[in-house]
Amino acid sequence: MTELVALLSTGKGTWSEVIKLMNSQEWDKIFLITNEFGSTTFKKNENMEFIVINQNESIELLIDHIQKQLKERISGTEVALNLISGTGKEHMAVLSALLKTGVGIRLITHTINGIKEI
Question: Of 21, 60, 89, 111, most Cβ neighbours within 10 A?
């Protein structure tokens, strides 16, 4: 199995895609990068961890915060990544943080036929 990293932020209907991804297969662990609102509103599963960010911080601080949190928690050498939700700044921060941890990244999305690697 794989660990899933997903951004859970802004964008109409994007939370439903994240939920579909989470439920479409068994994940070793799920890391949701979200803001304070997402961490208090989104129903947490037992194998899920929130990485709470303040999207008003500089991109450098976002990258550093996300990298430290993921580096301590990711156990494998590759993660499945979904960035359907969020802003460009958040996308850049997540990508940069993951690349700096040294893990491989598979970009995934949910389609009517299930998970698809893109």
Answer: 21
Tell me: pLDDT of 12 over 90: no
Residue 56 CA to its chain's centroid (Å): 18
The fold of the 3-117 domain, in CATH, is: Rossmann fold (3.40.50)
- What is the secondary structure of the chain as a DSSP string? --EEEEEE-SSTTHHHHHHHHHHHS--SEEEEEE-HHHHHHSPPPTTEEEEE--TTS-HHHHHHHHHHHHHHH--SSEEEEE-SSS-HHHHHHHHHHHHHHT-EEEEEEEETTEEEE-
